[in-house]
Predict the structure.
Amino acid sequence: MPISLSIQSKRINLIVDWFMEKMNLSKDLNISINFVKFDENQILENSDGEKMMKLGNMTRDENGYVINIKRSLLACNDFLLIKYIYHELVHVYQYECEKFDVKDGYFYYDGEKYPINLEYEKRPWEINAFSWSNNLASEYISGLNPSRNGN
């Protein structure tokens, strides 16, 4: 299977498989998901100067996608872990649907060109990924706990 994990976990496999099926993404995509320790200096700063801890990232190259998730999220509640896995997988989806790209020193999203230094919280693909990942994580958790839906 092209999706590889840095840890062997049935739980993580189920989380990723559900997303791939839900978003109609090919399970033949080469995606590597690693749970790593981010350095303390890997902190994002928003336009107000507030510091935000980096919890994940996704890169793409000719071999496929690499997703890094902060290892300590494995000890957090399921919603938080799932939300950040899905956030990075939404970026995979954005690339695969040709909604997002990085080239020639610019970001491209939904046919619009953005400067590479655009503040993180103003990036429409990030806003989209946060929204989708929250909704998808809630849907996934609700499916595991039908009583939450009143069923």
Summary: The beta strands are 4-5, 31-36, 43-45, 51-53, 56-61, 64-70, 100-103, 106-109, 112-115. The chain has one domain: 4-145.
